[in-house]
Amino acid sequence: YREEFQDLSVYWKPITTKDGSANYDVPRKLWEAYYYAIAQANEVLTLIEETKDYGDRNMASRAEALAVRAWSHFQLANVFCLPYNFDGQGGATNLGIPYVAERVTTIIPDYPRGTVAETYAKIEADLTAGIPLVESYVVYPEEKKKFHFSAPAAYAFAARFYLYYQKWDKAIEYADKVLGGN
Fold it and tell me: What's the CA angle centered on 175, arms 170 and 180, to 5 degrees?
């Protein structure tokens, strides 16, 4: 089953689809879905801070929220921004995406876009804060792991992120954690 949007996109024709609501692969839907995931992650992080409950369950939730927030921003950056070093300056001159790192409290907030370099730095901050927590607190039975950030999933994401970020040693470090050093 193919949709009109896909046919037009594949052949580089103008998008004439009138109703984008039925097309889940249109850029608007992607944008909304990832920012919805980010909003949920931020809500979890805010509630943990408000309650000051740092028990194992909440630390596992914090770990996954940080990983989800980093992953979602990474996906958005790769769809809506130029590649990290496209400008030859590590993304310092190209526009990034709005990096939302707090609870959304207004209807249509106006977040600054920043640069690709700033976006990647924030993704790295969330990722490096989340990985030790994932290692320490996130433990799921085998049947539930596919829907959560386990340590191997976080390492795989980190390896991919650092490849895009052109930090080769870090990419190798995390790839070795997933695949083993041999």
Answer: 125
